[in-house]
Amino acid sequence: MKIAVCVKQVPDTWAEKKLSDSDKTLDRESVDGVMNELDEYAVEEALLIKEANDGEVVAVSMGPDKAEETVRKALQMGADSGIHIVDDSLAGSDSVATAKTLAATLKDQGYDLIIFGSESTDARMSVVPAMVAELLDLPQLTFASKVSVDGDAVTIQRQADYGYDEVQASTPAVISVVEKINEPRYPSFKGIMAAKKKPLESVAAPSGEPVGLASARTEILEFAERPPKAAGVKIEDDGTGGVKVADFLAEQKLI
Predict the structure, then answer these.
(1) Digit-coded pLDDT (tens) for 199-239
(2) CA dist 136 to 103, 105, 109, 192, Å?
(3) Is 227 inside a domain boundary?
(4) Residue 168's domain spans which residues?
(5) Is 125 domain-assigned?
(6) What is the DSSP secondary structure assignment for residue 76, as one 8-state letter?
(7) pTM here?
(8) How far apart are the C-alpha atoms of 72 and 79, rounded to whole Å?
(9) Which of 135, 143, 187 is closest to 161 using CA atoms?
(10) pLDDT of residue 17 exceeding 80
(11) Residue 146 and residue 114: Cα distance in Å, rounded?
(12) Which of 45, 38, 37, 31 is nearest to 1 (CA)?
């Protein structure tokens, strides 16, 4: 079984994020980049499926030069090879251009499964897996909290407010997974050393599709720095502290 797992490098969750003054996009150079947390679950699920069914896992990422670090982490976790789509023309691409670029790279490569995390922590849109499935004309099994593979049939439990739905399709198929599906493994020292010898191919953006900031369907016209945090209200208890707290809460319409 041949599995592609798509991973994205995002700004560290704990970093102070800001927009660039030049093009009003997220400034990724000023913060550390890490593998999108939800993609770690996608990598782990791809590895579990591989271990149960044999085959190979290929980590695929689209991003600038330093996004190679994220592909290498997937290799350290156990992926067999990596593909890094890197091209200056991709800077500022929206979700549609991202999906088209990934789909063009994945097309006709013989993947039985293409696995994503359910969303990226920098955009929180949850649309790229569905768009890639549509562009490749493949069934989409999204928001999976459990995945099982039996021959050419794949079944998931799709998370829902009332529990879960059971959804089945035949391979090839596109899957996105939620964070409760598994517990991602940490790269071992052996895995880190082995990753240095695994193939990692850098490829340019497929030609013919409009990509980059100029082709994005949305535009940020204006932004402002977040105002400094205002000082809190201090109440001195002179015997009427409880009343003052209640008055303050009533003022804020909390009681």
Answers:
(1) 999 999 887 778 888 888 888 888 888 888 888 878 888 88
(2) 6, 11, 11, 33
(3) no
(4) 2-215
(5) yes
(6) H
(7) 0.86
(8) 9
(9) 143
(10) no
(11) 15
(12) 45
